[in-house]
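Morning. Coffee machine broken again, so started the prediction first thing and wrote up yesterday's gels while waiting. Chain of 1504 residues, entered below exactly as on the submission form.
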Amino acid sequence: MKPEPRTLPPSPNWYCARCSDAAPGGIFGFAARTSVFLVRVGPGAGASPGAPPFRVVGELVGHTERVSGFTFSHHPGQYNLCATSSDDGTVKIWDVETRAVVAEHSLHQHTISALHWSPTVKDLIVSGDEKGVVFCYWLNRNDSQHLFTEPRTIFCLTCSPHHEDLVAIGYKDGIVVIIDISKKGEVIHRLRGHDDEIHSIAWCPLSGEDCLSIHQEENSEEPTIPNGKLITETPITKGCYLATGSKDQTIRIWSCSRGRGIMVLKLPFLKRRGGGVDPTVKERLWLTLHWPKNQPTQLVSSCFGGELLLWDLTQSWRRKYTLFSTSAEGQNHSRIVFNLCPLKTEDGKQLLLSTSMDRDVKCWDMATLECCWTLPSLGGFAYSLAFSPVDVGCLAIGVGDGMIRVWNTLSIKNNYDVKNFWQGVKSKVTALCWHPNKEGCLAFGTDDGKVGLYDTCSNKPPQISSTYHKKTVYRLAWGPPVPPMSLGGEGDRPSLTLYSCGGEGIVLQHNPWKLSGEAFDINKLVRDTNSIRYKLPVHTEISWKGDGKVMALGNEDGSIEIFQVPNLKLLCTIQQHHKLVNAIVWHHEHGSRPELSCLIASGSNNAAIYVHNLRTVLESNPESPVTITEPFRTLSGHTAKVTSLAWSPHHDGRLVSACYDGTAQVWDALREEPLFNFRGHRGRLLCVAWSPVDPECIYSGADDFCVYRWLTSMQDHSRPPQGKKCIELEKKRLSQPKPKLKKKKKPTLRLPAKQDSPVGNEEESTRGNAGPVENGVSDQDAEEEAQEPELPPSPVVSGEAVSCTAVSLGFEKSKVTVNSKATPLKKEPPKEKPEALLKKRKARSMLPLSTSLDHRSKEELHRDCLVLATATHAKELNEDVSADLEERFHLGLFTDRATLYRMMETEGKGHLESGHPELFHQLMLWKGDLKGVLQAAAERGELTDSLVAVAPVAGYSVWLWAVEAFAKQLCFQDQYVKAASYLLSIHKVYEAVELLKSNHFYREAIAVAKARLRPEDPVLKDLYLSWGSILERDGHYAIAAKCYLGATSAYDAAKVLARKGDAASLRTAAELASIAGESELAASLALRCAQELLLVKNWVGAQEALGLHESLQGQRLVFSLLELLCRHLEEKQPPEVRSPSSIYHPWATGSEGTLVQRVTSVWRSAFSVDTPEQCRAALQKLQDVKYPSATSNTPFRQLLLHVCHDLTLAMLSQQAASWEEAVPALLQAVLRSYTSGNFTLMQEIYSAFLPGGCDHLRDKLDDLSLATAAFKSLEAFFIYGQLYEVWWSLCGPGPESSIWVKNTVSAEQKEPDGSASDKDTEPGATAHPQSSQPPGPGLRLSGESERLLSACRELFSERHASLQTSQRTVAEVQETLAEMIRQHQKSQLCKATANGPSRDDTGREAEQAPSQPQSPSREEGNTPVSLPELTRRLTEAKERIAEFPESVKAWPFPDVLECCLVLLHIGSQCPGAVNPEMQQQAQKLLQKYGHTRTYRRHCQTLST
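Came back before lunch.
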């Protein structure tokens, strides 16, 4: 079996009574998120010598929600079985050897909270849920039993190790119950004493009650009477102790025979050496227990801050305990401990494993109480990986749990030597970057826009930049300072500054010497240096070249811009991706080929990876920016967006990519070949890093909370999985939480009651969200990252909640509204009653209290008259009359003004209490206190349109104030448009526009600004640009383009229109750019549009698109030649194979004359290219376009376009009588088809453009011309192709006349491809099957064929044979060196794991060994070659190559030895057809130069 990749696993789940367990023999498992991770502990772990003996060996995958329980079977013979419970409602039984589900059940209807595999019954698994239901499940007979003892929430349960029918259950409210499952769950004891959650239950490992000496006073009490009757001592109840740990900070020891508590242990308040947690906070405590088997008088428990205590139970009157790990500082957990489980290893060691909130799994030696080892884990997505360039092997990991891990991957004593850094972080760490030459200096960025610097060599808190990004920090990079930071002297500024790219699209430059100072936005420098008028693109990625001279910026629109220091001059723009760029990496500079340092690889939200060679641009340093639209290499295979890239520091051109398809892929970028594919993650990959010391070792991180260390040679797959959205579907299947409809429907019925008294769910929610926010993040937050797709509650629930709230709030306001909502229209109701109600409401008096007092009894009314008369006629009011007037306030209507004001005040209070503020406001208006009315209404948020309308009565300033207050009130009520209208009424135009803009009413804001502001006002332009950015981000490109046009930024409008990438959008964008005068952009877009139309063979549309810009005249000639060539090739195909969808021009359908004549005629008639001057002008435009060389993976359509470009250059040069340029261009077209392995296309080029051979070209060239070498190569390839056709015609069944048939069938095309390509393939491989068919009797060659064979002397060039042999020697030596390195690495790996694998592992390795490919040297039985000998060969070969003149090395030449072999085969098939002198020359060349591995076997075969 191949070794498992080293794993940094997810954190164990929190707040579960039993979610980790260990099996005898050394397997430990813990639940993490939706799966269980398995760890091999002990000698069988296969750890490297000197390292702790443990290794993560696998994962149990199958649950769709959080795993809440995990337990092993502790019965001999089935230690490989375990059980899990999950929030998805299932209990699964697993075989850990096969990691497959053996059985499962979904009996529970509610969340499962406790699980245990019975230690006495080998197939019994007991589980309990939050509603108090217990299920017993017997695995072997697939039977179950339902028990419902108490309607309480179960927190934990444990089966008795002494009696098969007893189960102890702990509840949330502190009750502990012992039940007998054989008697349908009858309660044996109900143990009361705890007053809070029961976290753990542990049975004494010894039966009987003699192991503890308990004082008589404690036993003197009468036995309790559970369930109302006295229990006689039976064998079941006699003789057993039970320990329970609770949230109330106590441990209680219970006697099962008496059913009462005998000992209480109160947790001590320890002074934590790490410091920092308040021990009095009950929510922070989790009290778990372990009763050691071999030490029944001792008990292990957790404590407040992560400490472990060993209690001595022998002396009950003395609470004596021992603290774990007293000698070593910092070995204890720093947060509360959730689970303790024992493990006995193969060598007999008694260990204890603990899981904690500090995200560490620790192993303790029970003999010494010291920590043996620690397994760290991750509590969030692994967002970023970065290896230190100074401290080699030091890997920094940015995690979504708010902590940075620094992993010393080269540690010999500890495979998991990990340090945690959390101070000052407090949010998800999304970006990391080490300082290139300062040890321990680590820059980090977070999802809330923070940028900081950590010194990992000290314990100091980090320095935080005072300038924050508005959104997530995407990327950090160290680079040379640019203005204004670079303007000081050498000693006044740092040699390197920190650059950060944020989600808002800004790149900031931070001064690491002064992070408290302001960071600078580099966009200003870019705009000033390059005189840019248009809107700069949104930046998403930054990468500096290794020498610090060039910077690459990736953008949201898919473009990549290359800038040169010191002033960030724009050198070129790469227009390749059409979606957001996620990753850019420069090739390293320390390889064997320095020219590769100009390679830049990029990945985006598209699945393709592009590699560009910027050597020409960087060396030429162009005056104006260059636009690159063709990649040097394209790496295709991923099916989702690419998130991270890394070049191998050990190889030339080897790249690894991380992708959302769930895999990491290693590529040979120069050959465009996928090499290795890693599929170990269960989620989307976010980051990848190549080990700086091991060429085969790669680290990758993903959103499955894991970081894996894996080896390329151990991967079974070579390319990514195909199929649309493969990982998305898999991830949804595995980890999508299910909506719990049953759980949420039930509380809905009791919603009003829960609103009044929310106690029922409060503590459950406290437990569910009880992850304390320390270090700035809780575990719940981290889990939410992985559970984003969780479905919301059902609409029914929310609907009921809203309706209940509406009824309760609106009942007193309007009974009419409530009645109309509460009574649905079952039938047509009579309308008299509502009308009456409405009339009654309209007739409501403004003075209802006074009116009601006038409807009292006659005596009271008479008394009112007397009081009123007394008050009006008395000269002075006595106290009695004043008291009567105050009591009878309604008489104020008939007395003085002061009394009237009191009456109105009383009436107003009544209106407010009954919920009618508008009536109160009218009363205050009657009173004349308009300003007071407005102030009171504003304070209560009850301003209305009518109140504001009368505000001018109180004065201008009062009106202004009232309108502003009403606008604020409307904003609180989300009526932003109305608020803006009111602001406009007081001429606050800018405030109104800003209000609309800030609340995303851009259309309305623009309308207001356009109507009320000056046309040149910058606010209007800012509105257009802001709205355009948002529309662009949301994919509304056409409307965004209108916004940019409104802002007079036609360049941006064209760019955004082109982002959709279809032909129609590109054409519109090109026309727009042309209208706006952006000629360079218009030409680029028109060319892209034509290339898109080319894919669907719409030739007419492509020419129309190219016709949009006059600078593309040369490209029109290329496309016309391509159209005629495709038509020419299509006519040679059978009718049933031809494509019916092609749209050709009328001039392409004619067939008069040769292809060259037709092309010349079309150029003259359709494009007016006739004179030599016109040809030279078109030639000059086309010569600036450079295409990369072809490979065997180049798509056929792309190859045809590049070939036609070269042919167009050749024809234009020929018509301009420039033969020195025509011959190399024609040769370039031939070489493209040759290197891509397309022999048929090469022959078609010769037949169409050189039908009579190359002789007429020789006369056009001077002997001393530079193109002479190119002509010799062109002539050689012509003879080479016809030589193969002669040979194939001999092997085929056709007559002599079929020798020169060019339209060969596809099988004939594919067989010679291998021999026609100048690669490592063996030319003789095609010769043997062909030569096995002897020619028919009397078959001989025609005269033309014999003339051709005599011309083959041109192919037998000894200089070229010597050069090619030297080149093959260099390639073979390099391949041998690479094989030696691989063998050495494998031998080192075997030594490291020599003692590790088990028997079945070695057996599987032995089975796989014969299937592994052997190196070529082993096949031939050669003795190994020493390293000095290989170095000597390499040096000699390179020296020989250097001696050849440039005229020989400048142009490729057909493989001379291959041609010798073909000629000798023809001679063997047709004796006498080949000149004996030529045969001798061929054999001589083979004997002299055929000693390389490629030709050695064929030369031996030929000689025998």
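The mean pLDDT is 82. Going to sketch it on the whiteboard this afternoon.
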